[in-house]
Specification:
Chains A, B: Keywords: DNA-binding, Transcription, Transcription regulation. Chains A, B: Pfam families: FCD (PF07729), GntR (PF00392). The structure is a homodimer. The first copy, chain A, is built from 11 helices and 3 strands, in the order αβααββαααααααα. By secondary structure, chain A is mostly helical. In chain A, helix 10 runs antiparallel to helix 11. The two termini of chain A are 29 Å apart. The first copy, chain A, binds a DNA duplex through helix 3.
Chain lengths: 226, 226
DNA sequence: TTCGGTCTATTGGTCACACCTTTGAGAGGA
DNA sequence: TCCTCTCAAAGGTGTGACCAATAGACCGAA
């Protein structure tokens, strides 16, 4: 894990070890990681474009305040999810998911391609059989794929870009006790209903059933320990 | 406008002039912009971290497919909004806003600080007086500030990060005919209601009135020409 | 004393050049 | 036909030099 040295710095910043306002210099970085100026600047450039740093002449590299971070960049999401504030990150991602998925389902019902409709139906059916058979591992894979199809079918690239985020949340939910582990029958029904509504181009129904699904998540989120 | 050469390339990619799969080389870039390899690599590094490019040895710099783009990065949003597909970008941003703001309002009612409550009330009142006086320029400023406060008060950094996006959408809405230009009385009432609900910590009410506001936007979006 | 301009050391920004590392693709043999 | 081996093309890294901006110290006039 960890591609380059910038990975280390990125983690330290998102983790809070390097607090906003802290100042580094290229020389610090070169010395610390035993790399050349060229390489150090490369990494800094990345962190800069992720909103974690700003470089100022005669000053150095200043750690940016949290509101400046690109919290939607996959790299940053990854760092946050493996930091000591992972739980908070999961909660925020889940809230985002709750907000977006019903809207995405509605749009998907309007814009989905034929292939996407088939895929949604297929995955919903697969979820049912895997869920009822108790094959949880494979169930989760199908679940992730299902939500990805819906998000992509929305035709909105900003929703589609959240597919990985939702995958992350669905995969990690059990680790944080934010969701029931065993798929509940009503959830299976709701997935079916969403798939059918998307396939039959019924936006309101698609939204309603997806709303049901995320409301379950919301409830689990609210009753989970702070 | 346009910070460095990477700005030009970023625009060409998001615009579709440089299509996904196209291949550049560092030498191409150096020659085209008359810059050194170091500088060229700096820019490439940025475009890479925005998901617009991937560099592969022995091949060059390959323009990434659209799903790989970091469409939430402020830079990319800016490029898309000034590209020839600006309208599509606006629509997507607006849909995102529609999805997120009701949820943010609900959370804001639970988590807002005292100062944020005061600010929301103040801005709502200001919107009313400015709106009724027909001072549209200043009205829009207050409107933007209002929505920013709510998003920030949600306590979710991913919602807060959308404040600039919403500002962009609100500012640019008249240019795209996606919203009525004159603030309608019901909208003023709804803003007031959201502010009060947030101040009095009534999450359901806050959500409902924000929902009313974005439903107006949704309606305008649906009846606008494709 | 206070304000404003100037001067300078510090730090990032750019450049040229050399060398290392990876890898696609073609040459050549089994 | 298929596999392997080689090689050149491209990005990746390192070095040292110099340019450009600027925070902060310094100094002088009001």
């Amino acid at each position: 894990m960890g591609a380059g040295f910038y990975d280390v710095l990125g983690r330290e910043i998102t983790n809070g070890v390097l607090r906003p306002g802290s100042v580094l210099t290229l020389e610090d970085i070169q010395a610390r990681f035993g790399i050349s100026r060229t390489t150090a600047r490369d990494g800094v450039k990345v962190l800069e474009s992720l909103g974690l740093l700003t470089s100022r002449r005669r000053v150095g590299l200043v750690v940016s305040p949290r509101p400046a971070w690109n919290v939607y960049a996959p790299t940053v999401i990854g760092w946050r999810l493996t930091s000591s504030h992972a739980r908070q990150a999961y909660i925020e991602l889940t809230q985002l998911r709750i907000a977006v998925e019903p809207e995405a389902a509605e749009l998907a019902a309007l814009r989905r391609s034929g292939a996407q409709a088939d895929e949604a139906l297929r995955l919903a059916a697969q979820m049912r059989s895997l869920g009822e058979a108790g094959r949880l591992e494979e169930f989760m894979v199908a679940d992730v794929a299902f939500h990805r199809v819906v998000l992509e079918a929305s035709g909105n690239s900003m929703f589609a870009a959240l597919a990985d985020v939702v995958a992350e949340v669905l995969t990690g939910r059990t680790q944080h006790g934010l969701m029931p582990e065993t798929p509940m029958p009503e959830a299976l029904d709701a997935h079916d209903a969403v798939a059918e509504a998307v396939a039959h181009q019924q936006p309101d129904r698609a939204r309603a059933h997806m709303q049901f699904l995320v409301d379950e998540v919301r409830a689990a989120l609210e009753e989970s320990p702070a």
